[in-house]
Design goal:
Blueprint (H helix, E strand, L loop, with lengths): L1 H16 L1 H21 L7 E7 L4 H12 L3 E7 L2 H9 L5 E5 L3 H7 L2 E9 L3 H25 L7 E9 L6 H32 L1 H6 L5 H29 L9 H23 L5 H10 L1 H6 L12 H7 L3 H15 L7 H21 L5
Parallel strand pairs: 1-2, 1-3, 4-5
Antiparallel strand pairs: 3-4
Helix pairs in contact: 3-6, 7-9, 7-10, 7-11, 7-14, 9-10, 10-14, 10-15, 14-15
Length: about 375
């Protein structure tokens, strides 16, 4: 029995001394619990609303007050023309726009009905439907209160005219194809690049390579090129399948999309290079690479809206490369915006690439 107990103690010591194992065993459950408790939520919050009020009457002002007071919405913009509304959508600053025509209250009193146009960003169909329901509930409650105060107006109706922008058919493929591309490229590039470099260390080939006339930076960068080419081929395959099989359009510039995608591939490959400087075995490289799937799925906006997450998780999501790529890909593929509207995404990925490359090259050991 003593031998059995001592053997169990030895196994405990092995696990405790292995910091990576302790990280997986103790930290991962906590991270998953927090993510599923706060980030993973189908509830849509912080709906950004813009209002175009051409009537400026008592009812439209009351509607604006109700939209601003709703805990699930924020009235961020009051614009004066419809061109400003579409510009806000292209910049990704609003989710829903409420357009009141001229004489809204007068139509409601004299004609018995008044129309209000609701424009919704349909890039993400499920969230767009929920956001639309929120706004319609606010308008319906305002109409009920108005009818209760004025019994003679009980038969008056506010008729919402809805329009889904960018994805009128509300196809889920439009939303998931850019997200899946971001996740697949992250997994393949990080894992394959890190495993390839660590394999050279395990086999003893890295010493031979470092003894060659080439500098260590050239050796490392040369190992990234094949995976860059293969990843580019995968991108072309996904684009062809998404266009001709799934029917997902390329509404924006194809060249801008390819430029953003190639930049994202570079970021993922450099991240794999950084992982290879932290581990010594191929198994450890694969495990660490798989850990990047968690933030890519839950904190990138792939499946759950970032706006509905707590502020802390929103700040953490800014260091997830997939967040910026998925945002740029959706804007270009679905919304069809110009390249100027993804400048923030591109600059953030450029900054990530520069930081990761410098840190990875600094940490790479030229003597083994």
């Amino acid at each position: 029995m003593k031998q059995y107990v001592s053997f169990i103690g030895k196994e405990f010591l092995h696990i405790i001394r292995d910091r990576r194992s302790m990280l997986i065993l103790l930290a991962v459950p906590v991270v998953l619990l927090l993510l599923f408790g706060y980030a993973v939520s189908t509830e849509v919050k912080n709906v950004r609303v813009a209002v175009l009020d051409s009537s400026h009457d008592v009812l439209t002002r009351k509607a604006c007050d109700r939209l601003a007071a709703n805990p699930y919405m924020s009235l961020d913009y009051c614009v004066t023309c419809i061109d400003d509304v579409y510009s806000l959508f292209r910049q990704g600053k609003v989710d829903v726009a409420v357009v009141f025509g001229n004489g809204f209250a007068a139509d409601l009193v004299h004609k018995g009905t008044a129309e209000v146009q609701l424009l919704v960003d349909g890039t993400e169909p499920n969230q767009a439907t929920i956001r639309l329901q929120y706004v319609m509930q606010v308008l319906a409650s305002m109409q009920q209160e108005h009818s209760a105060v004025n019994p003679s107006d009980a038969k008056m109706n506010i008729v919402p005219i809805t329009r889904m922008l960018y994805n009128p058919q509300q196809k889920s493929e439009y939303n998931f194809v850019p997200g899946v591309m971001g996740m697949v490229l992250m997994l393949l590039c990080v894992m394959m690049c890190s495993v390839a470099i660590v394999r050279e260390k395990e086999m003893g080939m890295m010493e031979v390579l470092l003894a060659s006339p080439l500098s260590p930076a050239c050796i490392i960068l040369s190992k990234l090129v094949p995976y860059f080419v293969i990843s580019s081929f995968n991108v072309a395959t996904v684009l062809v399948l998404s266009r001709f099989v799934l029917g997902v359009p390329m509404a924006g510039s194809l060249w801008a999309f390819l430029g953003a995608t190639l930049l994202y591939i570079l970021v993922c490959l450099t991240l794999g290079l950084f992982v290879s400087t932290l581990v010594r075995t191929q198994v450890a490289a694969m495990v660490v690479s798989m850990l990047f799937i968690i933030p890519t799925v839950y904190l990138s906006g792939l499946a759950f809206p970032i706006e509905s997450m707590p502020p802390v998780l929103q700040y953490i999501s800014t260091i997830v490369p997939a967040r910026w790529y998925i945002d740029a890909a959706r804007r270009l593929m679905i919304q069809g915006v110009d390249a100027q509207y993804i400048r923030t995404d591109v600059w953030v990925m450029c900054a990530m690439e520069a930081v990761l490359l410098v840190v990875a090259l600094k940490k790479f050991k030229v003597r083994l």
